[in-house]
Amino acid sequence: MPSSETAAARIAELLPEINDIRDPRLREQVVGCWLDALDGGGWSADDLSSIPASLRLVDRPFGLVEHVRGVAQMAQAACRVFRVLYGEGVIRLDPDVVLAGALLHDVGKPLEFVRRDGGWRLSEQARSFRHPFGGFAIAARRQLPPPVLEIIAYHSTEGESFPRSAEGTVIHLVDALNFTPFFAGRG
């Protein structure tokens, strides 16, 4: 069994945007959340690259890692655009909160999916709650800051009736941009 340092290094290798988080404690918490999620789902760090982004996308040549990286990179770009075009006096997005939220928005997915009978299925846990709730619980145990917890909890449809922060709105929209176009034009 690999050491936790080896597993942490593997997470940072698969999700290199983690290294862009400026706050070292937050960076460590993000890695810890992924380690906890994988452990909770019965996965190893090496398994992360095989977990699908969605059961509706299992036929695609990408998975959860690419989805999370896409959300993280687009969220980072959104922060740059907002800063350059609108200035920090108009809107100030916290780049560490945005990036941590992007990297953790789907941290509950390893709890939600299982491989069974030659395919991907919802776990027993997912019959009770979806990934935003599992991800929130993991991140809360790791004591992530409330703005990041809000992003995880409200990024998906479960958050539709709650007011989102500016950072949470960015992640919600960028997450949708990294998911819904794959279904465009399908009948």
Commentary on this structure:
The protein has 187 residues and is mostly helical. The chain has one domain: Hypothetical protein af1432. 52% of the residues lie in helices and 4% in strands. It contains eight helices and two strands. The protein has helices at 4-14, 24-40, 64-86, 95-104, 109-112, 131-141, 146-154, 166-177, and strands at residues 113-116, 119-122. The chain has a two-stranded antiparallel ribbon with strand order 1-2. α3 (64-86) packs antiparallel against α4 (95-104). The protein is globular, with a radius of gyration of 16 Å. The mean pLDDT is 92.
Based on the model shown, name its key terms.
52% helix; Hypothetical protein af1432; mainly alpha; 187 residues; 4% strand
Query: In terms of per-residue confidence, which ranges show pLDDT below 50 for 5 or more consecutive residues?
Result: none
Oligomer: single chain
Task: Determine the number of helices (DSSP H or I, runs of at least 4 residues).
Answer: 8
Order of the strands making up the biggest sheet:
1-2
Order of helices and strands: HHHHHEEHHH
Structural domain count: 1
Average pLDDT, all residues? 92
Work out the radius of gyration.
16 Å
CATH architectural designation: Orthogonal Bundle
**How far apart, in Å, are the first and last alpha carbons?**
46 Å
Q: How many strands appear in the DSSP assignment?
A: 2
